[in-house]
Design goal:
mainly alpha, 8 helices
């Protein structure tokens, strides 16, 4: 991941050099330009190989841990007491187990493919800009801090609704699973209308929570768009002033545009990633509660083995 992200920081420098040579309008420089194009190709091939290596590594790591999580959930869940299962919908418990392993998969994807890569690329771009044009580096740093702070407080506000949405979704799935498995009782006791109304009440609540959280996402994406416009304007304005004073070249414009676009791409994604991370934590929360709930019936330490000598029924 580190080498792949470094590649994305270094490649714009090659484009900068290429555009600087193009600006000279000298055909004798074509061999140097071809050499730069070849280097860009080699870096792209290297980048592709790196990410395929990450992908195959993840393909072993994630399924292995997901299987282990399923086994852990099975062992702990089956050791709960009889009354525990009486007080919980079977469908809800199954949903919690499935969400738990899926949440792990999504979170690890975000850590490897999103958060880690975004952190390295952002830090690299800021370092380069501070070294070459400190004012532009400062603009990007301040913008990044403001952006991340807004996203952080937004996700903190939204997490309670994500938890509530996950709980209602679990209840809905559990209700559906249990009424399907007890379909004969629904028919025998003519309780179709009552069961349907109960299910509809849950789905209506789920609709309201989904719409509310999705509207929150749209609101924050609107704020992100405004911040992106402000950043692009500030960077290009300062760059033009630098060019006016002869401090930067045409290639520097290409470099800055590539870096600004990369920052947009990475930090725009981080807002979605943080929201997704908290949603996955909310999904995993219910199974976590099952795993930290003490068993109702616990074996006595060093208990003797039970030996049944004779079997019988006494009235």
């Amino acid at each position: 991941v580190v080498f792949g992200a470094t590649n994305e920081i270094f490649k714009p420098f090659l484009y900068k050099k290429l555009f600087d040579l193009l600006a000279l309008q000298n055909t004798s420089l074509a061999p140097q330009m071809i050499q730069i194009v070849v280097w860009i190709l080699l870096l792209s091939i290297f980048y592709t190989i790196l990410w395929r290596g990450i992908g195959f590594s993840i393909n072993y790591f994630q399924p292995r841990v997901m299987s282990d999580l399923l086994n852990t959930c099975y062992k702990y869940l089956q050791n709960h007491s009889y009354s525990y299962f009486n007080n919980n919908f079977v469908g809800s418990l199954v949903t919690r187990v499935q969400r738990y392993q899926r949440a792990f998969e999504n979170v690890t994807d975000q850590i490897f493919f999103e958060f880690g890569r975004t952190t390295i690329i952002t830090a690299g771009i800021l370092t380069v800009l501070f070294y070459r044009y400190w004012i532009l580096g400062l603009i990007l740093l301040v913008w990044s801090v403001v952006y991340v702070v807004i996203i952080y407080f937004f996700t903190q506000y939204k997490i309670k609704y994500d938890l509530e949405k996950a709980a209602v979704d679990t209840k809905t799935t559990g209700y559906l699973a249990d009424t399907i498995s007890n379909n004969i009782n629904v028919k025998l006791f003519t309780s179709y209308d009552a069961e349907y109304n109960g299910f509809k009440k849950l789905t209506d609540k789920l609709f309201k929570l989904r719409k509310f959280t999705w509207d929150l996402n749209q609101t924050v994406e609107g704020i992100q768009g405004v911040l992106a416009l402000i950043l692009e304007f500030c960077v290009m304005y300062v760059a033009v002033r630098y060019w006016q004073k002869g401090l930067i070249t045409v290639g520097d414009f290409a470099l800055l545009q590539a870096y600004v676009f990369t920052m947009f791409e990475q930090l725009w994604g981080i807002g979605r990633q943080m929201r997704s991370l908290y949603e996955n934590i909310a999904d995993a929360n219910e199974m976590t509660e099952v795993l930290i709930t003490p068993h109702g019936v616990v074996d006595v330490e060093n208990a003797k083995k039970l030996k049944v000598i004779n079997g019988g029924i006494v009235f």
